[in-house]
Amino acid sequence: AKYRSHISEFKVMVKPRAENQPLSFVNDVLPILSKAGCNAGSCHAKPDGQNGFKLSVFTYDPKSDWREIVEDARGRRVFPAFPSESLFIKKATLAIPHEGGQRIQPGSESERVLLKWIRDGMVFQREDEPALERVSVLPAARVYRREQSQRLIVQAHYSDGSVRDVTGLADFVANDGEVATVDDHGRVTVGTVHGEGTILARYMGQVAIARITVPTENRLPAEWYAALPENNFIDTLAYMQFQRLGLFPSDLCTDAEFLRRASLDAIGRLPTIEEAKIFLNDKLPDKRSRLIDQLLTDSAYADHWANKWADLVRPNPDRAGLKSVYILDQWLRAAFRENLPMDRFSRDMVTASGSTHRFGPTVVYRDKRTPPELAKIFSQVFLGTRLECARCHNHPNEKWTLTDFHAFSAFFGKISRKGSGVSPPISGGTEWFFHGGSGSVSHPVTGEVLAPKPPDAPQPELDDKEDP
Predict the structure, then answer these.
(1) Would the pLDDT of 335 be above 90?
(2) Helices (H), 268-338
(3) What's the pLDDT score for residue 428?
(4) How many helical (H) and strand (E) elements, i.e. helices and strands, does the chain have?
(5) Strands 206-214 and 431-435, bridge-based pairing
(6) What global pTM score does this model have?
(7) Could you tell me if 43 and 37 are in contact, meaning their C-beta atoms sit under 8 angstroms apart?
């Protein structure tokens, strides 16, 4: 590769597939079915399937998909003695009527792979077959000019260290069609507006992101940005992004606007007339910093943010009881009044134990009573990630799988409780929560008992007696 005076070399080794190595349903056939849309929610992955043929949405259950093709309907979908006469092939290529239309082109590489797989004995998975670990996209980030185009490359990385180009089998989605669009082959076309966008590439339940940056064509002098006032590290990062996009920040808001915005953000109400007069008549240069300190010590600050957090954890009085919800509300208000550090706040909430009439965070466990319910709310509130889609199937737009969700749920598998429990519509009794139960969380498809594992992180080594 040569660009101006720069030259780079990269050695490539291409090895042929062993002639006696059969194709695999998991690594060779499923990607073709996914690209063809056969396992989409509008096709054979509907809750009841389509015309008696059902596949798992986003391939979350490959073994079931294999059985559906090879063994269901007395095996009439495949014909090993004459692969091209298989119903599985003839429907997809529209050799016979198919309500879903032509999904595989006759004579294409995809058809050849499917025919060879049937001919080779319809292997589900080879004994030595590497597992797909992640996918990546190239270029992962790039600065573009308007109306420029770029072909993306999607690579699948396997457990044995091998890398496979799967661009032709990946699905692509653009998050902002005005910034950039993408076709089925991974070709990105930048629009006529400037800004930022992303292209999501999906392959076999794994996703990767390509970031698109389209700056303005009129570059501003660097000294303009250097002269901007920096109050904190957020300003520094914001100015870097403005410069990258060729934009210049707006002027600072007026004192009146700052007072209104800061008051609504921090304490949830507008300033009084008297407060506004005092602030606007203040001529000292540090008055905005002093206003912030004043707002953070205002009694309304704790009430406002306690209400926000009560909305996030959402205890239902009909399930948890009125007194329990009141105890949680009081704990939240006290935490903000005392300026409880966020690490302690989070730890107290997540590792809560004791009585629901004495320690507020236990009320979350009283309301969300199963490991999946707890995994759903704690991943969203404390990790900022919605894992819920992966509760029933692999996440359609992110990399989370069924295993990710239920392994995270396993952190809450051994929670024990005693007491009156809940009795709709209102439970007045107390309940105690503690670690030490014998519960576990199993994979909903394989039935395997899962060890606790955080999303996108190594599995921790835990003693049986430890509270995960």
Answers:
(1) yes
(2) 273-281, 287-296, 299-313, 317-320, 322-337
(3) 66
(4) 16, 17
(5) unpaired
(6) 0.78
(7) yes
